[in-house]
Amino acid sequence: MPWGFWLGCAFLVLVAFAGLLDGAKEEARETAVLTGLLFHGWAFGLDLVKRNPELKRGSVYVTLGQLEKRGLLVSREETWSRDNFGARRRLYSLTDAGRDEALRRAGAKEAA
């Protein structure tokens, strides 16, 4: 078979493997957010980043939004006062389903 065929096959394997890695990273970020909120209650996204080096500023809000769309989190804007300057920040907390999922993932992580 021509070398182009084998090169194409190798490329497809690498792309598939990279997709698996991205999925594993996403699941790790979700687990970090869920367990962080499990132990800290209501929190800002940047507070979660400060507490967990696995989380990055650029991805934590995407992860929070995805978890909220799936019904695992709720959010609310912080209460405004004269002392708060700038944009309002969002606080996040687990729903009952999110708490169950966080406990499940924390248990699976300990078992591994």
Helix content: 55-70%
Order of helices and strands: HEHHEEH
Q: Write down the domain tally.
A: 1
For the record, give the distance between the C-alpha atoms at the N and C termini, rounded to a whole number: 43 Å
User: Shape from CA axes?
Assistant: globular
**What's the helix count?**
4
The fold-level CATH name is: Arc Repressor Mutant, subunit A
Low-pLDDT sequence parts: 6-21
The gyration radius over C-alpha positions equals 19 Å
How would you write the strand order of the largest sheet?
1-3-2
Annotated CATH homologous superfamily: Winged helix-like DNA-binding domain superfamily/Winged helix DNA-binding domain
Q: Number of DSSP strands?
A: 3
Let me know the average pLDDT.
78
Biggest β-sheet description: 3 strands, antiparallel
Structural class, judged by helices and strands?
mainly alpha
CATH architecture: Orthogonal Bundle
CATH class: Mainly Alpha
Strand content: 5-15%
Task: Please characterize this protein's 3D structure.
By secondary structure, the protein is mainly alpha-helical. The chain has one domain (27-111): Arc Repressor Mutant, subunit A (Orthogonal Bundle). 66% of the residues lie in helices and 11% in strands. The chain is built from four helices and three strands. It has helices at 3-40, 45-51, 57-69, 96-111, and strands at 43-44, 73-77, 90-94. Helix 1 (3-40) packs across helix 3 (57-69), helix 1 crosses helix 4 and helix 2 (45-51) crosses helix 3.
